[in-house]
Each structure stands twice: as structure tokens, then as C-alpha cells.
Amino acid sequence: MTDSVQPVASHFVNGAYLEDTAGASIPVIHPATGAVIATVHAATPAVIEAALAGAAAAQADWAARTGAERGRVLRRAADIIRARNRDLSRLETLDTGKPLQETLVADASSGADALEYFGGMAGTLTGQHIPLGQNWAYTIREPLGVCVGIGAWNYPTQIACWKAAPALACGNAMVFKPSEVTPLCALKIAEILTEAGAPPGLFNVVQGAGEVGARLVADPRVAKVSLTGSVPTGRKVYAMAAEGMKHVTMELGGKSPLLVFDDADLDDAVGGAILGNFYSTGQVCSNGTRVFVQKGIRDAFLARLVERLKGVRMGDPLDEATNFGPMASAAQRDIVARYIAAGIAEGARLVAGGGVPDRPGFWVEPTVFADVTDAMSIAREEIFGPVMCVLDFEDEDEAVARANATDYGLSAGVFTRDIARAHRVIARLQAGTCFVNSYNDAPVEMPFGGVKMSGVGRENAAAAIEHYSQLKSVFVRMGRVEAPY
Ligand code: NAD
């Protein structure tokens, strides 16, 4: 079916591939077929030790380089990624099942954007001079030390780069643990960073499930943990990090609202809802899965949506005509199928999809429920699959109140032609990342992250620098010291 994607070894530590077959076997499954395409081994304590010791050793020398030198390595890595975009995209497609049509433009390229952006910024990271009359103070922006990155399975290349780029720009080293569901892509990023001139040990990749992640988080040499994952995992990792008073970034789940007002451009609103529910087969944390549609436009919205879903091309994700792939794993397919059954049982009206095709791989049809109420489980819980819930509303106050009635707060969107309403509504929505007449754009220049249970901290933009560095304050007395005795 495909060329071999078996990596040279399971881990990338101290600038080279490293194997330890004593670790539990992890089969890598291509979600479109269910075929095992590679096998890696979970990191043993010896591998974890080598990675942490290597990172600690590399970090001091790396931090001592000038910012411009560090930035050059990151920008070189970005160039290599762009030159190899097709190969990296293909690997991402095999690892995740996402269509090549998507991965060619959304994954390695987004990772390259982050490396380029933070590479450019590395030379500008400074402290501040603070005049104090005769005296003065200054701040030094210092790296945190060894950072741990832990990834989810939906965007393995992007997540590795979004964490590595600001961490390394600030002078930190990183040990990254990809999701056990998609272990292949981060290894390529480690290879490329090394080729670009990153010293051995600066960016290490170790494989394994939660147990390996927990060992990394608990290690006293680790100063910071950045997790992309679910809220239950976030709770555990945050608590563990608190034991060691470590810095954290938590990029967690969501159940984000998308508000469509009567005056919205119908096709744009339908397009936004499609992007915010079915891109990457719905496996996107920031998806606008609660689509609140004002009553006057509701029927037209549903009719247009159903019409446009005829454009779905489900099939081999390596075929560039395919625009809808499988779920990343059998377990996730089963979770989504259970939610679809729950939606039907709870009385929601199925207006599109709902099927779980009987074919090899982990497929679910793009599914739309209408007449969804706030109390239904499909409207309250993160499904992380291609299931759109359409809810009706009468007026703005009601829509805002219902949109905010969730523990999550990752994203929110509004479609309206009324410019004042757009900004008024966004100001009232409890979410970290918002969209006006659009959905799910994530340029590296814009901070990304959640409020409430959806997370802590921000990725991307200058905001990320605050989460990978700390300030040392230095008071300088220019005159004599006047002590009382
Ligand atoms: P998950 O929480 O099951 O796993 C995430 C990662 O944490 C994996 O690498 C896993 O091995 C690791 N892990 C699990 N238990 C751990 C522990 N006790 N200690 C340390 N590490 C542990 O999430 P998932 O199923 O891989 O991904 C889906 C979830 O991720 C969804 O909730 C989704 O919304 C969220 N997500 C969030 C963002 C974001 O940026 N906010 C992006 C993508 C995905």
C-alpha cells in the first residue's frame, strides 16, 4: 500500500535515534485501513533518563548562545520542513488518517511557520531597563530550563513545533512525548532540528502512553510542562506539576459555541460551521460544535448545510481529491458512534450522516443534529468527532447566556453583518480564541488558548514567550548604602 514508514528507532535522544525494545510495543495503525504500518516501543526508564540528562546538558550551552544564533537554527529547520512538506504531509496522513489535501497546507507548514516566527523573535528577547531616580533596576529574561511537551493525536507535527519553537527560541531544551496514537511525525521534527544545527539533546522525542508522560512531568529536573490533551489528563498533569511548582501551559478540550444571527451571510456561516465541525473529521479542540442559529434563518441554514455536505469526498486520504478522512483510532470511532446513538436516543433530529460505514479503518459519516437542546449530552460533552449540534435561539442575550453555560472556554465564533453586534457579542463570550465571520483560523501571529476548563497559558505569538521564560530582576544602587546601624 505504502512505502515503509517504520522509523529507524522509536526515540530520538541526544541527537540520534535510540532504541530499547524492552519497552512495550506500540503498533502504529493507518486509520483509513486499520493496517499496522510501523511499531515503536514505549520509553523505558533508561530512555527517559537519557533524554532528560541529555536535555539538561544541552540547555546551558544553548542558552549561552546569542538569540540570533538560536534563531538561525530554528529558521533553517523551518526551511527544511517547507522543502520536505510533501513527504512530511504524507507521513502525517498515514499517522493520523487526515486527508493529504489538508495535511499539505495545515500541518508541517504550520510547524514551519512557528519555527520561522519564533526563530525571528529569538534575537529580540530581552529584559528591561527601569530608571529609579539615582538608582536603577534591570530585568534579564531567562529560560526556564528543561521543558516537557506532551502532545495529542490530532496534529502531531504542528503540536511538536508549536511547543518546540518558543521553548528553544527562549533558550530552553525540550523532551517531547507524542501521543501513543500518532508517534511518527515528531521524530521527523527532531531529525530536522538536528540537521538544522540544534545541538544533541536540545530536542528529544520519547514514545509512550500516559505513564511515560507522568514520569517526565514528575522529574525534578523539569521546569515546565506544556500539555495538549483532554481536560481529565490536564487536571492530572497540572496537579503533578504543582507538586514541583513547575510552570504549565494547558491546551485542553472544548465545546465551543458558534453563533449565527439572522443577518449573517448564509453561505459564509454554513462554510464556517463546516470548517468548525468537519475539518480533520471533527478532531479539532477549538471546533464550534454547538452551532446556535437564530430562528429566522434556521431552516435555510440547515437546507444549505445539507446541500453542501453533498461535496464530502470520503475515501483514501492519500488521494488529494479526498476531503474527509477517518477517525484517528478505533477507540475514538467508538466514542463518536456512542454519542451519535445518544443524540438519537435523547430526541435530537438527525438531518445528515449518522452512519458508521462498515469498511476497514475507523470511519464515521459527517453528522448533523438539529433541534438539539442544551441539556442533551451531545450539546454538553466534547465528542471530538464530526458531529455538529444545531440549536435554535431567539435573541442575543439568550444566545450569549446559553453559549457561556459550559465549563469549557476554548473558542467561540459569531456570524453577523452587524459590526457592532459582532464585537459586542464577542466581548461577552467566555472563550480564549474567537472568530468574527470566520472559524478556526490559527495563524502563528495570534495567541491561541483557552479559559475556564479549556486551559492555562497561550501558545503562539509573543504571548508564548511569557510561558517559556522568566524574569530576573536586578536592583542597582548607585550611591552609598544607608543602614540604620
Ligand atoms: P489525552 O488527554 O488522552 O492525551 C494527551 C496526551 O497526554 C497523550 O500524549 C497522552 O499519552 C498523555 N497523557 C495521558 N495521561 C497522562 C498522564 N497522567 N501524565 C502525563 N501525560 C499523560 O488527549 P488525546 O485523546 O490525545 O487528544 C484529544 C484531546 O486533546 C481532546 O480533548 C482535545 O480537545 C484536546 N486537544 C486540545 C488542543 C488545544 O490546543 N487546546 C489541541 C488538540 C487537542
TrEMBL record:
Q: How is the cofactor bound?
A: Binds 2 potassium ions per subunit.
Q: Where is the Aldehyde dehydrogenase domain?
A: 22-474
Annotated NAD(+) binding lies at G151, A152, W153, K177, P178, S179, E180, G253, C285, E382
Pathway given for this chain reads:
Amine and polyamine biosynthesis; betaine biosynthesis via choline pathway; betaine from betaine aldehyde: step 1/1
Q: Which Gene3D superfamilies match?
A: Aldehyde Dehydrogenase, Chain A, domain 1 (3.40.605.10), Aldehyde Dehydrogenase, Chain A, domain 2 (3.40.309.10)
Q: What SUPFAM superfamilies does this protein map onto?
A: ALDH-like
UniProt keyword annotations, A-Z: Metal-binding, NAD, NADP, Oxidation, Oxidoreductase, Potassium
- The EC number(s) this enzyme carries: 1.2.1.8
**According to its UniProt record, which residues of this chain constitute the active site?**
K163, E251, C285, E459
The cofactors named for this UniProt entry are: K(+)
Top-level taxon of the source organism: Bacteria
A Pfam match:
Aldedh
Q: Which residues bind K(+) 1?
A: I29, D95
Q: Which GO terms describe its biological process?
A: glycine betaine biosynthetic process from choline
Q: Which reaction does it catalyse?
A: betaine aldehyde + NAD(+) + H2O = glycine betaine + NADH + 2 H(+)
MF terms (GO), sorted A to Z: betaine-aldehyde dehydrogenase (NAD+) activity; metal ion binding
> Which positions does the record annotate as the modified residue Cysteine sulfenic acid (-SOH)?
C285
Q: Which positions are annotated as binding K(+) 2? A: K452, G455
Q: Summarize the subunit comment.
A: Dimer of dimers.
Family to which this protein belongs: Belongs to the aldehyde dehydrogenase family.
Functional summary from the UniProt entry: Involved in the biosynthesis of the osmoprotectant glycine betaine. Catalyzes the irreversible oxidation of betaine aldehyde to the corresponding acid.
Query: How is this protein named in the record?
Result: Betaine aldehyde dehydrogenase
The source organism is: Rhodovulum euryhalinum
The gene behind this protein is betB
